[in-house]
């Protein structure tokens, strides 16, 4: 996958479209398997609708061929692969963004600071994903997945995290690791160790983060078009 500089920053399909420049005719339709986290309808713009839709179930007929653009993001824990073609109009686009969990890494800001404790926790985390059959190797060929579905791949790239996003991204990931680690270690010590072992690893991560170490994943992005 090639790097594209300004294309990365623009996230391709969203480039140049400020809120004030979006036509009133545009409609945004969000799908999720649960309505529990939807905002109140009164807080949504008039051109935004949200709908419950289970990706493991049959896609409702009324959604077939309805969309000019389908945006899929951070879905790799839910599905291995996936096919957005039924939702697309002929000539429609799918943009798929994924955090590549296989690239999960600990980054020290300079050589004087060690990231050893954070790296040890991430090694254990990768062991957990393998034991749980959460494989992410298919993400390295996301364009190939789209081509295999008959889509024309227009662009694709791997986007390492930028320095200005390292800290907020780390804060989010640490919160997720704390919660998932707590649940997994209590459920099966073979996955991440006992709760006591996991707490020791997690406290080591917090120490490293307090010294400026960050954790992050690459973002893999692919843009495909359905043939007319």
Please provide a written account of the structure.
With 228 residues, this protein is α/β, with parallel strands linked by helices. 32% of the residues lie in helices and 25% in strands. The strands form two sheets. Strands 3-4-6-5 form a four-stranded mixed β-sheet, sandwiched between helices. A two-stranded parallel sheet has the order 1-2. Helix 2 crosses helix 6 and helix 4 packs antiparallel against helix 6.
Can you tag this structure with a few keywords?
single chain, 228 residues, alpha/beta, 4-stranded mixed β-sheet, two-stranded parallel ribbon, 6 helices, 6 strands, disordered N terminus
Short description:
The chain is of the alpha/beta class and about 230 residues long. The chain contains 6 helices and 6 strands; from the N terminus they run αββββααβαααβ.
Unreliable residue stretches: 1-11
What is the H-and-E element order? HEEEEHHEHHHE
User: How would you describe the shape?
Assistant: elongated
Report the oligomer: single chain
Radius of gyration: 20 Å
User: In percent, how much strand structure appears in the residues?
Assistant: 25-35%
Range of helix content: 25-40%
How widely separated are the two ends?
26 Å
Task: Report the structural category.
Answer: alpha/beta
List the helices and strands and how they pair.
Elements: H1 6-10, E1 28-32, E2 48-52, E3 67-73, E4 88-107, H2 116-131, H3 142-148, E5 152-159, H4 163-187, H5 189-192, H6 195-210, E6 214-225
Parallel strand pairs: 1-2, 3-4
Antiparallel strand pairs: 4-6, 5-6
Helix pairs in contact: 2-6, 4-6
């Amino acid at each position: 996958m090639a790097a594209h500089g300004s294309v990365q920053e623009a996230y391709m399909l969203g480039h140049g479209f400020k809120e004030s420049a979006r036509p009133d005719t545009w409609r945004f339709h969000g799908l999720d398997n649960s309505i529990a986290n939807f905002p109140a309808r009164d807080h949504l713009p008039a051109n935004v609708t949200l709908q419950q839709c289970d990706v493991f179930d049959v896609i409702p007929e009324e959604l077939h061929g309805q969309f000019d653009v389908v945006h899929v993001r951070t879905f790799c824990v839910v599905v291995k692969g996936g096919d957005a073609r039924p939702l697309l109009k002929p000539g429609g686009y799918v943009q798929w963004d994924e955090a590549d969990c296989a690239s999960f890494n600990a980054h020290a800001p300079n050589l004087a600071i060690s990231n050893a404790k954070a790296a040890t926790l991430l090694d254990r985390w990768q062991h957990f994903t393998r034991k749980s059959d959460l494989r992410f190797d298919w993400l390295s060929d996301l364009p190939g997945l789209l081509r295999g579905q008959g889509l024309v791949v227009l662009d694709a790239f791997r986007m390492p995290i930028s320095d200005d996003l390292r800290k907020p991204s780390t804060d989010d990931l640490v919160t997720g690791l704390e919660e998932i680690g707590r649940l997994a270690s209590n459920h099966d010590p073979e996955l991440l160790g006992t709760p006591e072992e996991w707490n020791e690893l997690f406290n080591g991560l917090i120490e490293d983060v307090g010294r400026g170490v960050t954790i992050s994943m690459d973002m893999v992005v692919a843009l495909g078009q359905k043939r007319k």
